[in-house]
Structure to design on (165 residues):
């Protein structure tokens, strides 16, 4: 995978952080349909990539602290599994306005990379089954293809089973 240049048009805090880290990645752009709210399914369809390789970033409230769970777009998050991976009793989805304010990204474009305030991160262990995975590049219609081990390292994330089979 060649390193993409994130400068110029299309640059986001996520792509800037990747460029600064010197980690190889590839940007994938597509035209986002403003009527679509299932952002992950749209990315899989428009990029012609298997849904299990496209990961969505969900901000959760872990007892007053925010954290990030990154899961395949074709899976459902198990709140109890995310809580266990984060070492807390329970989690719930964070209020979208709070998630946007804390990460600096809009819903549907929240990236696990380059957040305004980096949050503790857990990533579904299924990411390790793929040579590369796709995560939001920091805006709707922009995805980053990256090695899952690099994603874990850059987010200081932990791999764990976060979804139901």
């Amino acid at each position: 995978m060649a390193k993409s240049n994130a400068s110029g048009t299309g640059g986001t805090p996520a792509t800037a952080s990747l460029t600064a880290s010197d980690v190889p990645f590839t940007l994938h752009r597509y035209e986002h349909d403003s009527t679509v709210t299932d952002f992950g399914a749209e990315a899989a369809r428009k990029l012609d990539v298997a849904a299990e390789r496209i990961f969505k970033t969900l901000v959760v409230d872990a007892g007053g602290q925010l954290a990030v769970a990154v899961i395949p777009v074709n899976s459902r998050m198990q709140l109890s599994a995310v809580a266990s991976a984060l070492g807390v009793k329970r989690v719930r989805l964070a209020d979208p306005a709070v998630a946007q304010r804390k990460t600096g990204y809009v819903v549907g474009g929240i990236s696990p990379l380059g957040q305004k305030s980096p949050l503790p991160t857990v990533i579904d262990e299924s990411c390790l089954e793929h040579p590369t995975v796709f995560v939001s590049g920091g805006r709707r219609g922009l995805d980053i293809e990256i090695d899952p081990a690099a994603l874990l390292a850059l987010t200081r994330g932990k791999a764990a089973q976060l979804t139901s089979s």
Notes: The first strand starts at residue 26 and ends at 29. The longest helix spans residues 13-21. Residues 3 and 24 are 4 Å apart (CA to CA).
